[in-house]
Structure formats: structure tokens, C-alpha cells
Fold these 2 entries.
Entry 1:
Amino acid sequence: MKVLYAFIRTAFHNAFIYRIDFWVRLISIFIMMYASYSLWTILYRQIPDAFGMDLETMTTYGVLGMMLGSFVDAASDVSYYIAEQVRLGTLELDLMKPLDFIVHMFFMNLGEFFLLLVTNGLPGLLFAYLFLDFNPPVSPEAGLAFLISLFLGYVVFFGISFLMGMLSIVTLDIRSYSWVFWSVVQFASGQLVPIWMFPPAFAAVVLALPFKDIYFAPMSIYVGAQQGSLAEILLSQVVWALGLILASWLVWQRVQRRIQVQGG
Amino acid sequence: MAIIEVKDLCKSFKVPVRKEGRLAAVRNLITFERTLKTAVDCVSFDIERGEMMGYVGPNGAGKSTTIKMLTGILLPTSGEVEVDGLVPHRDRKQLARRIGVVFGQKSQLWWDVPVIESLRLLKEIYRIPTRTYKTNMEMFGELLDLHEFQQTPVRQLSLGQRMRSDLAAALLHNPDILFLDEPMIGVDVVAKERFRTFIRQLNRERQVTVLLTTHDMSDIEKVCESLMIIDHGRIIYDGTIAGIKEQFAHYRELTVDFADGVSEVESDRAELIEREGQRARFRFNRHRVSASELITELAGKYQIKDISVEDTEIEEIVRKIYQRSPSENGPIES
Amino acid sequence: MKVVRALQFRLRRGVWYELRLYFKFIGIAIRSRLQYRSDFLFGIAGVLILNLVNLSLIWILVARFQSLAGWQYWEIVMLYGTFLLSHSVYAVFFWHLSNLEDDILHGRFDQYLVRPCSPLLQFLGREVNYMGVADVVFATSVFVLAYHNLGLNWTSVQWGFFAVAILSGTVIETCIVWIIGALAFWTGRSRAIFFVYIRFQILGQQYPIDIFGMWFRIFITGFLPLSFMNYYPLTILLDKPNALGVYGIGFLSPIVAILLLALGALIWRRGLAGYTSSGN
């Protein structure tokens, strides 16, 4: 816990150094929340039956997606960090740190995650309640399950992002693909358009992938539109989270050996 | 007339202040305070045409900042600079044709293509006449062994080879002045020696003015005639290398091998600092006693087999100068 | 007087000299890139995945709602193809503008300043991104498909306007990224803001902006003028009402492009001046 605290403090300090980033990010979240809200309102007016649920649930889902998008994405900084170390040839230095690399990365990003939860999430929530017809969780239990599911979603995202970072050892410049990465995540995680709107064939594919556990799982629990029982969803998240962390660990072991043998 | 003239040159930067205490992180996000940090503090110096000047100082003393102002990268806060009759910041592009710069830590060559491609491109950038280009390439081929690796991409070169390529790149357009900012980090001894010879020859044949910053004092000793030391943004020594020894090296050392059977040794005018077997080392103040007097004294008292006198290393002198506290660091003219 | 002389000097030294250098830089950049083949394959795969995902999302929405605010599927595909055409040119030659912070942070920018040619040119000529080539191919196919399916038959004037719109689109995107990149002169890094920009682009670029509320339409018209890249010119070419209800906004695309170029140049100059006085 002490380690985590240290990382949170560092995250705060970094936020201070880049305060312009902070403000731009915050305001952009407001704008995106509004965009999503207005999008569903307008489309609802066009064909009300197309949703299969009432407007407020839909807009709550959309707005929540934009709000969470910003800080769960903090995890994607992992891939960027790793790519940067690879490019500068300093990945070996991380081998020498006393902390296991994956644990190190995880805590570093968890610190950022909590920071954004407070500095972006709370103002976002306030904005949503005040201006955007935002619903509270459907029930207190749903609220609690949402928080757990959100954390699990973060872990899943971390795993995917870590593996993505490992890719930068094979190919040089993954920054060019951040666009691709985000589009895929936004699409397959149901962050922008909920998966229940997908045609069945598409939905089947997307539900078989881990991305849905990042956003769709917690968000559908929040609005009470989850596909299947609560236990099933959380179990799926736990399984994917553990699986991805294990995969990350295995890949990292190989990479580590490669670095030790070839000297980077 | 001096080729580089610097008068009362200052450079200060604004750096953000970080608040401490409760809720500091939050307050830091809202307010914005900055404080002034002086990197170069009113320095003045001249460098003559054809001079080879060493420029040393601890990390963060203001060396790089000075060089950046001399090359036009940085705008001075106040003071005057003139390089080859130009004001660097104002006439940056014009000046660029007359100077060559090597930043040791990063190569200025194109990373992924053979060295020769970079040099060909530089020929275009500086609009170097083909004849000059050919002459220079021959010279570099000979003196820097450039042809050994000119077909290799820069990223595959050794540090020494890379430094040689960078040097060639900086000299291709026959600059009047060469700025070398820590050019030899990580370069092996052989390559270093060759570099020093090359610079000396260049200076002799083409009267190129050289300003060299380095952490290795032997570079300075072997290449330069004069030396500037900067610390905390102020020049604390500006003069010849012989002069610095004169001024700061008060002590010299005498190593004596005594004949077998000599046990206790001592001297009235020198301090015994080490004794190992039949060998003893003495330290003496050069202003109070000369080496020959000391030798005469010792030879009169004991039987001596061999003798050698050493100066204090310049490295040692400079280290001592750094170690003096900032308040003592008044400028010292020689 | 001073300005005139400076201008004359510039002309004499030649725009040609700098332009010729730029092409030489690009030549070297292409040869550098060819050394990394795996990057190329990953790049192609990435471009394919990205575009298929984007088109799928459009398709899913349209399958649900039949049309989006009066735009049919192939019209939206054309919107996407038009954006992608502009974007691909940017992607090949100017992608690395967003990485300016790297050059500043690692002191590479200093080197541009000790050479006798434009720092901007040296920076721009440093890289080409040939996965953008895949974008060009994909964009063209998508556009041709949409054109065919919509049964369009443009006159040469319309084609001319389309060409201008594509070019303006490239300039607009390049300038936005240029300005964001130049922020690094002050803040030392611009990545986070660039990422924010990408998010807006993913959200707003591929759809007719009529599906968003008025404030967002204004935002993406006036503050982050992405809709001038594809949406507004196409409302004219497809003869559709536009989201602000003011006829002919689409004709403003080239003007927006020029304004952004001027703004970019201004910010760049100030940034460069700031850089030389702070040095980071």
C-alpha cells in the first residue's frame, strides 16, 4: 500500500507539471459527455423503438462511457511508456529495479487511475448530474458491483495495454498505431455504442473478446442492462483479467531473457 | 581582433515553483508561479582567431548554455555576443555557414542511412562547392579513416566511429570556428588520441578556432593552449594552462628510491607522504623550495638510486577549484 | 525597409533551395524507412483493422436507425472516404508533427538551429510514414465504391471543388496537429493534448455532425474545425442541408485552411522565439 501511495503522489506531481494537459483533458471530457448525450437524444427522437430501452438509460450509458473513457485510458499509457523505453534503449534499466516490472507498471498506472478518478471523474459526475439528465446506479448493489467491475475492467485494460507495449519490441513505432488501438477499444468495448445494439453476429464476436470487460461490463451493470447475471459478468472479468496478466507475465519473461541474452 | 567577443553575457530561465504542504497538489493545478534561475551570470571573454580554448566546469555550471548562445540557439537575457563579426541569434543562418558544431551526446547524422549519404546531404545544405567537398572528403578519408565505414548506417557504428563521422560532418563546409560540446563521451583511448591529433593538425593547417568542452582534463591539456573554468554561471579562471599550474599548483611531488639499508628518511623542507619499501614520496611547496635544492639535500643525507618529480595533475587542480565554496569563487584573472 | 530587404534576401537565397532540400530530406527519410520492414507490415495491418472497425461502427448504427440524421449508408461512407483521402496525405508527410516534443525533449531540435536552412523544413523532412500509403489505397477504394453506389455523376467543376476540398482537408488536419505539436515549445510536451484531439476525431469525424447537439456542432466547426475537412464540402456536393442551416459553409473550407496555416505559422514563430529564449 505504501508503494501505491508513493505512485499516487508522483502522479499528482506529474499532473502539476503538465497542468495545461490537465485542463484541456477535463474540458474535453465535458464536451465529449455532452456530444454523447446529444447524439443519443437526437437519434432517439428519430426512431424511439430502436433502443429497446428508455432515453434516460441510454443517455446515462453514453455519458458514462465518455467519462470513464478518459481515465481507464490511463492504462494505455503503459504501452506508450514501454514503447518509449524500447526506443530509447533503457528497458534494461527497468530490469535492475527491485520491483517486478509488471508490478511496477501496474502500480504506476493505478496511481494515475486514482488521480484521474478524483480529478476528472468527480467533476465529470457533477457536470453530468447538473446538465445531462444523468441517472444514479439502478440500485445500491448495482453501484457497488459497478465499482468492483470498473476496477476489474481497468485490470483487463492494463493487461491488453501491456501486451500492446510488448509489441513495440517487435515493431518500432507503436505510437502510429495508437489511433488504431483506440478505435478498436472504443468499438469492441461498447464504450461508444452499447453492444446490445450490435447485430447478433457482430455481438457474438465482440462478446468473445476481452474488450467488452473494460467498459461494457461496468457500464451495463450501472444502468441495469447487463447481459446475463451479475456473477457471470464479474466472473468473466476476473478470468480475463487473470488470463491477460498471466499472458503479460509469460511474454515479459521471454522478453527479459532475450534482453539478458542479447543485451537489449 | 578576437573572433569571439563576449561581454557581460547573462542568461536566466524561468522555472515553475512547486508548492509544498497541505493540498499542494490541488493548489499547484490552479496557480502559476515562476522563479528566475540564472544559468550564465555576466561572463565576459574573448577568443582569438586560431586559438584553441578549453571550456570546463561541473555539470550544470553553464557550459552548454554558453555554447548555445554562441551558436545562436539561445537568445541571451542580456549582454553582448559577437562571433566572427555576427550576432549569433540575429544572424543565425548566416553564422551557421561559418561554424561547425559537434554535440557529443547526439549524432547530427541521419541515423538509418550510410554516413556518406548524410555527408552528401550536408553538401547540399551548406552548398559546398564540389571541389571543396572532394578535397575535404579525401582529407577525412585519410585522417579519420572515414572510408572504412562510410557505407555503414550510423546506428551500426561504434561510438568512436560515430564521433569521427560527426566531426567530418561538422567540418565539411570549412568552418572558421569549431564548437565541440563534450565530443568524446564513451570514446576509447585510441580513438581519443587520434581525435586530439586531428584537431591539432586542423588548427595548424587551417587556423580553425576551437572551443572544446569536456570532463576529461587530459583532452584539454593535450589539445588546448588556454582554458576557461565556469562554475555557478561565472567564469572563475580564464588564462593559459601553464598559468593555472603556476597559480594553483603550489605543491609538487618528489618520488625517491633509496638504496638498500636506508631506513629512516626525512627532510626539513618537504613532507613525507608515503613510504613503501625503499620508495618514498615527498610533497613540497614549489614557491619555498626548488626541486633541485630538495634533491641536493636528500642526496647529501642518504644514498639514492632513482628520483622523479611530478607536477600536480591539472585534473586535481580543477577539482580543487570546484570544491571551493561559491562565495570564494571570485573571478581570477591571470 | 528592413522587411523588404529580408524578403529579397529570402527570395534570392531561394525558395527553390529550401524546396530542393526538402525533397532530398524526404529521399533520405524513405530510404531510412525501408530498413524497417516489419513496421511496414504492421502498418498495413493496422490501417486495415482501423478502417474496417470504423466502417463497421457506421454500418451498425445505420442498420439500427436506417439513416443518421438524413444521411444514408453510402453517403456516410463517402463522408468517411473523403476524410480519409485528406488524412492519408497528412499521414504520409506530416504525421510526425505530433512528435515534435520528442525532438525538443531530447535536444535534437538544437541541431536544426545550427544549420543554415529552415528548422521547420528539416523537421518535416525527417520522416515519412509509408503506412499512410495504405490509407491512400483504402481511401480511394472506399470513395469510388460510395460514388458508384450513390449513382453520382459530377461535373468537372464539382470534381475541381472536390480536389480543393481534399487539399484543404489535408492542410486543416496538418495545421491542427502542427499547432498542437508546437505547444511543446512552451509546455515541453503535447502528447496528451494530441491524444485528446484524436479522441475528438474518432468521435466526430466519421459521422454527419447533424447527429450531435448544437453546441458540439459549433465546437467542431469553430474551435476544432474538423468538419471543414469532409462534412461541409460534401453537403454542397451531395446537395444536403448542413447542420448549422447556413447555406454554403462548405465553400469556406479553403479559407479555413488558409487561416489555420496563418495561425500555425504565427504560433510556430512565437514558439521558436520562445524556445530560443528558454531552451527548455
Entry 2:
Amino acid sequence: MSNSSALPSWDVLTKHNVFPVANHDEVARLNFLTHLNVHLSSQILPGVKTAYETQVKPEIVAETGEEPSSRHQVRQHMLNNGYFQMWSALRRNTMEMRHQAARAQVLGQIENIVDKVDKACHNDANLQLDDNVVVPPNVAMVDIHCQPGCYYQEYFENDVTVAASYDLGLFVTTAGLLGALSDGGGQGIANWLKTQHPDFKPKRILDIGCTVGHNALPLAEHFPDAQVIAVDVARPSLRYAHARAKSLGLNNIQFVQANAEDLSQYADGSFDLITTSMFLHELSHQAMPKILKNINRLLADGGLNLHLEQPQYAGMDVYQQFIRDWDTYFNNEPYWGPMHELDLKQVFADCGFDPQDMFDVGVVSKVDEKIFGKPKSEGEDYGRSPVWNALGLWKGKNAKISEKVA
Amino acid sequence: MSELNTQLSDAEKINLAGTKAKGQRPYFLADKQTEQALSVAMTLAMELSVTKERLASLECLLVDKGLIAKGELDHYQPSKEEVAKRSVDTQAYLARVLRIMQQDKEELEANDPDMQSVQDELTKSEY
């Protein structure tokens, strides 16, 4: 086997102070699951398309006399297709195996991790918890991406199991394409700003839905003179995120427990840069406008708002929409589909933003190629690939500029 | 273990590691039990992969410590007695893995009674 096809080992991840350690077999288990994910997406998933083209699509055409017209129609028919059933059963099961492997590893050393997190969090103003914050229904109704306990459950006082297992398991699903700190999204934003907008120097940055802080930290690092506020509803994720950031030497970032539907503690126009990463698809039709209106209020004139997401469905053929929609129904991402079919620019306009200010730009995960190799274009794991479509806007600038991929 | 008391027993940790994500679990195969058997098989496949890696690591350690030469294991020639022992071991291994097929075959040949008819036989007189 040539070097180019070899995947990086989980063990190349940066071991910050609260990162779970792994013994030989735990590393082997995570590497197996990483390879299994890549095998499923590169070797088995193409057969799903073949099954669609050769079996399911002709069935639909024969039945209705028309080409398939919606991703839902395709899904209903594909659910009866044996090849799709097996790929789906394997993909779902692999996700569950990832969570069990990660949780078993974390729970085996949870006392040590919590001990370190407790010490890092003690009397530190860079962590602001608020017991009055209620986990909203869009986070609470199901455990998102099949992660037991989601981002917020604590199994004992000050537990961080869900956060630590999320941090170590991201590698498995993305095959390392998010980099040594699983921060490819944040690095992508920082890199885009560095190369495309070198004069942009935000003083205050807000990252919403930060979870363990992986995509907020590159901004704190890239703008050392800025104050970064990273908010989330999930207490264990914030405590872990704070300890993680501190151990990585970043002190210009404050983790705040808050629901982005209510950020009344911050003044109008008090942030020059507001970001979200893979966040919009975990909201709801109820939460999204409230959060966008808050962003509009909090963003300073001339400030930048950027949302990293997978591309919207509009303009895609129905198969592509259907396969990207898999996580909606089968990986506990119920708002994925509804969000991806929205006309986001219209939604933003309805929330008070000027459509003239908005732009779309591709952002790619920025990782150390010496360790992780070049991002591969083939065998895309739809919905999970580290290539994002960012919706952005420069407030009040009537941008109309054609933004370029970094 | 640190002094911190999580108040979770080993059994609780094992149970928590494998706990279900909230939200109804979809099944894709026509038969739910078949999908569950697939899940078991995939976990065993993972554990076999882990074991293979462990053996590879052990081999590297033995080479590093000068106890065997690189490639020696690949060119290892078992003795005649060892080959014979392994053949028997392999037969026993396959028989263990495929026990259900052996027993199904025996049942096809045996004309075994079902439990209800045995019970009926054992209880046909008044107690």
C-alpha cells in the first residue's frame, strides 16, 4: 500500500492537558473505526448511488412515469433497497461504536480528567456558568448525532464525560481531516481572514454554540489582542472547553453559559466578528430567527458575521439532497434537512440584515499536511466532509465583493 | 484513581459507555435481529483488528529488544509436531465458530422431540 492512501493515526492528535489518554488497544480501536468510516464512504457508499441509478430510480419512473422529484420520495423508495439498508445499518452502527469506544475510554479515566478540569476552572473569570440557563428543546429532544448525553448531560457533579468523548471522537468520523486539535473549521476561518482580509482586526469576537471550543480557539490565537467570548448552553462542554483552552495557552477567550436566544447581557454593536461553526443545523425554526436577530443587534457596523455549514440543498439533484439528508433521519440531526432547504439569505433578511451585505464563500479545513496529508477530493462522506459553505455578511458595507476561497 | 469520587461503579461505567442516544433508533434491515447480529459481528471485527495490532506491536517490541529478527515471524517454520497441533486447534476453532450449523445438521438427522411433547409425555399420568 502506498503512503498516500495511509490514514493518520488517532495518536497524532495534540494531547492537551485534559485530553483523554489512550492505551494501545484504545488507539487501535479508534483507528479501526476511522478506517471503517473511510471504507464505508469510499468503497461502499458509491454502490448506494449505483443502486439508486440502476434499481430505485427506474422503479420510481416505472411507477409514476416521472423522474424522482424530491429527496423524501427517494428516501421512501431507498429504504426498501437492500444495498442501502446494509450501508445504512453499517453507518449507523459505526457511529454507535464510536460513541461507545470514546465513552469507555473517557469513563476509565474520568476522575483524572475532572480533577484537572476542576483545577483549571477554580475561581477563573474566563469561565462564566449560569445555572439558570435551560437547555432548549432543539438540543434536548434527541441526543444530537447519536452522542449519548448530547453536549450537556452530567453523570455526577462536575462530570465532563460527554465533552471529553466528543473531543476525542471527532477524529473518527472525519478521518482526521479536521487536524490535530479537530479545529479545521476555525483554522479555515482564521486562514481565510488572514489571506483575504489581512487588515481586518476585530477587537471583540463572539462564537456561538462553541461546544468544546475547538473552532473558537483558532480565532483567539489568530487575534491575540482580541477578546473572544464563546457561548454555549452546555455546562460540561464549557468547563472542558475552558480547561482545554487554558492548557493550550490561550487566555483571551472567555467561555460563557448562555442561550444565544437571549444575549441581553451584551450591548448593541459590541462585537466586530460573530461566528458559528456547524451550528445552524442544530437549531429550530423557532430558535433561528431569535438568534439571528441577536447577532444583528450585537454586530458592530462594518463587522463580519460568518456561519460555517455544509452547502444548502437548493440547486442539487435529488439524489445528492437525499444522501446529504441521511443524518437528518438516521443520525439524530432532525433539523439538518429543514435548515438545508431554507433560503438562508431570505431568513437573514427577515431578521433585519441587508441582503446587499451578504456573500457565500467556500472554506476548507486547514490542517497540517505533513501529518494529515492533503485533503482528498474523492470518497466524500456527504454531510461530514471538511469543506464548508460559509454564509457571511459585512454589516452595512453593501459588500457586493466577490469573496475568494483561501 | 484520584481521590475524586465520581460515585460511579465499574458496572455503571460499563453500562454508561454503551448507553443509548435519546431518540428512536432506526433499523434498516428487514429483520431487526439480523441487524443486531450485524452489529455484534462489526464489534467482533473491531476487536479482531485491535488484537492483530497488539500482536504486531508485540512483534515490534520483540525485534526492538533483539529477541527475534525482523521478518523472523513471517518466515517461521513450525515443527512437524507443531503443525499437527495447529491443525487440530484450527479444526476445533472452526467447530466452535460454526457450532450452530453442526447442531442444526444433527437436529435434521435426529428427529428430536419438542419440549411440549416431552412434557406431555412426562405428565400424562395423574400426579
